[in-house]
Amino acid sequence: MLVCRDVLIDPEYQGQGLGKALVEQIVRTLLRQDIGNITLFADAKVVDFYKRLGFTADPEGIKGMFWYPTW
Questions:
Q1: Catalytic residue check, 50
Q2: Which of 9, 49, 50, 55 is catalytic?
């Protein structure tokens, strides 16, 4: 399982297909390693980008929970 929190492309280079190529390569690499469960936390404004790459929104609408040590 992979949990991805952010995939970012510098705004100067956006729109050139770099983000698409990067995500597709990440998915191919994970599948070759028999990792087929990918969880991605994405900002609402880029959800459509990931949907075009085959990701689906959580049908239960779960946004994710995090725990960080406080000591």
A1: yes
A2: 50
